[in-house]
Amino acid sequence: MQNSVQQTWFFHRPPGEVWDYLTKPELIELWLMENDFKPVIGQKFQFIYRPAKEGAAPVYHYCQVLEMVPHKLLSYSFRKGKSEKEYTLDSVVTWTLTGKNGGTELQLQHNGFTILKDVVEHNDGWNFLLNRLTERLKVASNADANV
Amino acid sequence: MQTQTFDAFQVIADPSRRKMLFMLSKDSMTINALAENFDMSRPAVSKHVKILYNAGFISIKDIGRERHCILKQDGFNELQDFINYFDKFWTIKLKKLEAILNNKSK
User: Fold this and answer.
1) Which residue from A18, A24, A96, B106 puts its CA 20 to 30 A from A74's CA?
2) What does the H/E/C string look like for B4-40?
3) Extents of the domains making up chain A
4) Which residues of B touch A (CB under 8 A)?
């Protein structure tokens, strides 16, 4: 079971400029979402999605800068849920920038999808469960195929 | 009986239901056998089983007088859907970024 999103893009602009679009709130908003991003490791920030539909509640994404190397690497946690503590989805978004052919290769990795509400109670965690289930389901589908 | 429906993430956000899935990932079990592993009333166990069933995580088979819970794939497809959702989400967003950056180079 695939457990991550990976994409590679190329832009005909230098890394410094692409970096600005990943780290300046007013520029991030142009292509991604309203946000209060600050380029400081450990900094908490939010992405806010406001649905166009009237009366629909905004969707908050609770994030924290994990790693940052200017013009090269940016990684932040990406949580979705009712509040910062009551989240149902946790994940990590990592951007890698490489100068290439007078432009920038931008790699996106969105992974670490986990349900962490009670990770203390279940040290094995969600990944263990997923692995077990994948195994189990493989066995089940092989059995089906043999019928 | 009216039961709530949850999405896959809500279903597995609950520790008891996660534990049930863990146990069922090893082998199918009767509701009674499941209930023995939990410090809760039988109706409470049934309620969790129903939620797992409604969300497509398990199927229930009546064998004799016993009800057997068997792990099912549908609920997990929904998790895969989440990953596919983000793949599309980022494609749309990055296309937008590409358009902005291309415009600038003109």
Assistant:
1) B106
2) CCCCHHHHHHCHHHHHHHHHHHHCCEEHHHHHCCCCC
3) 5-116
4) 9-10, 12-13, 15, 18-19, 21-22, 25-26, 71, 73, 76, 79-80, 82-83, 86-87, 90-91, 93-94, 96-98, 100-102, 104-105
